Amino acid sequence: MFNSLSDRLTETFKNLRGKGRLSEADVDATVREIRRALLDADVAVSVVREFTAKVKERALGLEVSQALNPGQQVVKIVNEELVGILGGETRRIRLAKNPPTVIMLAGLQGAGKTTLAGKLSKWLKGQGHSPLLVACDLQRPNAVKQLQVNGERAGVPVFAPHPGVSSEFETATGDPVAVARAGVAEARTKLYDVVIVDTAGRLGIDAELMQQASDIRDAVNPDEVLFVIDAMIGQDAVNTAQAFNEGVNFTGVVLTKLDGDARGGAALSVASVTGKPVMFASTGEGLNDFELFHPDRMASRILD
Ligand code: GDP
Fold first, then answer.
1. Which of 285, 287, 293 has most ligand 1 atoms within 8 Å of its beta carbon, as the pocket-test mutant?
2. How far apart are CA 78 and CA 62, in angstroms?
3. Which of 119, 42, 82 is nearest to 292 (CA)?
4. What is the mean pLDDT of residues 213-227?
5. pTM for the full model?
6. Nearest Cα to 162, choosing from 194, 195, 125, 135?
């Protein structure tokens, strides 16, 4: 009956209007509701603990207003804290002063990197940029082909190694670091102003793979390193995000598969443990299923 956190807190506090300060017992009842809502949204347990402690501290000092139900006041606090952790304002891509801007994608296999590369390139093209996709996922047999298909759909060229074909790329064949470097050089010569580097992922965190991603980062010195994470990952979000943060020191997060049932708790977990902003949301398999991430909308989704 009272599905959203807002409804539940309003109900919890319906007799408290104009009561003065909230007591510890009142606040504990609130914190229980908030904890339940966040766990339902699959926010990591450690993040829930830290978050509720912060809300409790603010709620304890709260002067209950005559005008607002205390539940509404607490919801406002929860909302402000959520939006703050999720990055406040939507963060835009940082463009290089001297093009090309280099954007590197990293994340587990299946997170949606290659799909995102196509979407991001199309979106950037729509904004008047001239992007180049660079295929550095040489781990998965079909990844280069998949990027080429996405590039074709987006109308964006793909720089990829061609095994056995004699070209200036031949030396790059098989070595993702060399492909990345050659791709950026290609963009510089042919005047593409944004380079999107797709990298390999594994099903689990893997030291060799992380080293490869880190080597690519060192080789092309990206302006943005976007960590791509499936919103359905649930409680594994924290470990995965920490591993990638240590491995490639990403600058922003892209949350994928938000068209599914996931309430988006992963966004809060990742932003909370890494302090990095979520920048984009991927909402389907199509090239246009992509949007800027809005912290306030995600806060509502988590609390709903
Ligand atoms: P990668 O291994 O990280 O490059 O992942 P892919 O880009 O190959 O994506 C893995 C699968 O997830 C593919 O079947 C994609 O079509 C699908 N996918 C990617 N992004 C989304 C999304 O936002 N929503 C849905 N429903 N599927 C997605």
1. 285
2. 13
3. 119
4. 97
5. 0.91
6. 135
221-275 pLDDT tens trace: 999 999 999 999 988 899 999 999 999 999 999 999 999 888 888 999 999 999 9
Q: What is the pLDDT of residue 258?
A: 93
Q: Which atom of ligand 1 is nearest to the CA of 256?
A: 23
Q: Flag whether the ipTM exceeds 0.95.
A: yes
24 lines ligand 1 (CB under 6 A): no
The pLDDT of residue 243: 95
Say what the alpha-carbon torsion angle 203, 207, 208, 211 is, to the nearest 10 degrees. 120
- In the reported structure, the alpha carbon of residue 111 is separated from the centroid of ligand 1 by a whole-number distance in angstroms of 6
* Distance from Cα 5 to the centre of ligand 1, integer Å: 31
* Strand order through the sheet with 290-292: 158-159, 131-136, 194-199, 101-106, 224-230, 252-256, 278-282, 290-292
Q: State the binding site for GTP.
A: 107-114, 198-202, 256-259
Cα–Cα distances in Å, from 90 out to 258, 276, 291, 295?
17, 12, 11, 7
Q: Copy the structure tokens of residue 14.
A: 């319906």
285 within ligand 1 shell (Cβ under 6 A): yes
Per-residue pLDDT tens over the stretch 61-103 = 777 666 667 777 888 898 999 999 988 888 899 999 999 999 9
* Neighbour tally for 154: CB within 10 Å: 23
Q: What is the DSSP string of 55-121?
A: HHHHHHTPBPPSSS-HHHHHHHHHHHHHHHHTTSSPPPPPPPSSSPEEEEEE--TTSSHHHHHHHHH
Handedness of CA 110, 134, 116, 87 (dihedral sign): positive
> CA distances (Å), 207 to each of 80, 146, 230, 245, in order?
37, 25, 20, 13
Our mutation pick for probing the ligand 1 site, out of 104, 113, 115, 138, counting the most ligand atoms within 8 A of Cβ, is: 115
